[in-house]
Design a protein that fits this description.
The chain has helices at about 10-85, 100-120, 125-135, 145-155. With about 160 residues, the protein is mostly helical. It has a single domain, classed as Helix Hairpins (Orthogonal Bundle), CATH 1.10.287. Helix 1 (about 10-85) runs parallel beside helix 2 (about 100-120).
Length: about 160
């Protein structure tokens, strides 16, 4: 590059300096590009590890929460099925005070209440109590657990 009014030695010196700066700039650009690619790769690996950890943690937490809900509900269902079959002797252990714990507590009170009703109406003077409750007609029929239970419940509710 020749500039008017400048000798060729000075012009050559400036051209050499421009070429050296360009060359150094190209080297720095290459180094920066390689460093950027390495850092980008490292960040992507960390993000992938964080995503895998988050998925694993949320899966474990979801399984724990599901189990903490399902187990008491399964127990409540077993107790309710046992009571539906007429067995009011189920031992109900309430360990939680959340919604499922309150459900189990209600089932426990229900079993105790029904047990009291059965023992009250199942004693030696059962026929007199049935007569008083107005369900003595059921004593003349073959035993029908559902009808007897409904009649006793209705009689008690009307008192």
């Amino acid at each position: 590059m020749n500039i008017r009014g400048m000798d060729s030695a000075t012009s050559k010196f400036i051209d050499d300096m421009v070429a050296a700066v360009r060359e150094r700039g190209d080297i720095l650009n290459s180094a920066n590009a390689a460093e950027s690619a390495r850092l980008r790769h490292e960040v992507l690996l960390w993000l992938l590890a964080a995503a895998i950890t988050a998925v694993a943690a949320s899966t474990l937490l979801g399984a724990y929460i599901t189990r903490s809900i399902i187990h008491p509900l399964r127990r409540a269902t077993e107790v309710a099925e046992q009571a539906a079959k007429g067995d009011l002797t189920a031992e109900i252990e309430v360990t939680a005070m959340d919604e499922t714990g309150r459900l189990l507590q209600s089932l426990k009170r229900m079993n105790a209440s029904h047990g009291t009703i059965v023992s009250d109406y199942g004693g030696p003077d059962f026929e007199n109590r049935a007569r008083e409750a107005g369900v003595d007609r059921l004593l003349r029929k073959p035993y029908q657990k559902r009808e007897l239970a409904e009649a006793l419940a209705a009689a008690l509710a009307s008192r």
